[in-house]
């Protein structure tokens, strides 16, 4: 474990212990510990010498944050954040203490639920039957079979599937928004028509999920809705550190 | 290696946060950034690699959709399956679902390979555990039934 700085998992309230039994990133797994600067602290481990976005490292990061979130509010760091040394980290914690504490208070008692809308898996026949553009390209592909026409037809199908999923997905999101404390639109994900996270009060999680499942079920011919959560509040750290970040947080 | 069963009994939702693929972009693109700290430079390179592979994968997806469409035509032309029957499920849906799912999975596989190609032992764990339709071993039989109907 060559020391190349400190891998930072999260900013937490002062006095928060590292989660028991959770290993950190690296191989062998780093041992998490707390670096405290008064009222705020960071959970860190020695940064491995050659860190990459490996599956086991991504999982270690995620697992540790999940465990940590069980004990109280957490500001998750983006994967791969490395502080040069403990002194620099302490200086940062002290400098942004007020800001960190404010966001920790805001997130306390909340979880993130991520909702992705994907094209419905079994709606191809509907698309062919209902979309004129697809039918036209399909006829063309039958008259002149070949790579070009196939790609055009397939692209039209993909785009129709995606549009239908987005339309139905937006209806679901609209219904869910009032149940959440905040809504954040996530980065585009290949294959997903929509990717949105909700900040949900801890004790409303079950209600949120059952409502979401009911809404999704009613639209299953157009959209497949996938939920992930409860998660650490990745999407709701807002301007805790870099005010210019494009974390589109709305509501409140 | 621990499994991805999260927060059992603590958080009110049943843990379904399970798959890494579903939350990959949150881990890599969300979460707090501290400007003065390094984000490991190699991480960035990995992400670029994933993007490049996805572009390749989407053309592959288009071609699979096209193939699935042509398959639909064959089903219709080959017998008595009418458009209303296509819409009501059966033949067309079983073909369409299989093809669409296959195409979607090929993209997922690509990402997983790019991210975790060296973790073969854990590979199974990374698979999206989404609701899957049960296997359809009898699709041939149902096709015949529908044609006779």
Automatic annotation (TrEMBL), chain A:
Keywords: Gas vesicle. One of its GO terms (cellular component) is gas vesicle. It comes from the Bacteria. Pfam families: GvpL_GvpF. InterPro entries: GvpL/GvpF (IPR009430). It is found in: Gas vesicle. Belongs to the gas vesicle GvpF/GvpL family. This is GvpL/GvpF family gas vesicle protein. It comes from Streptomyces californicus.
From TrEMBL, chain B:
PANTHER family: GAS VESICLE PROTEIN A1, GAS VESICLE STRUCTURAL PROTEIN 2-RELATED. It comes from Streptomyces violaceoruber. Residues 128-149 have a biased composition (Basic residues). Belongs to the gas vesicle GvpA family. It comes from the Bacteria. The gas vesicle shell is 2 nm thick and consists of a single layer of this protein. It forms helical ribs nearly perpendicular to the long axis of the vesicle. Pfam families: Gas_vesicle (PF00741). This is Gas vesicle protein A. The gene is gvpA. Keywords: Gas vesicle. Residues 101-149 are annotated as: Disordered. Its main location: other.
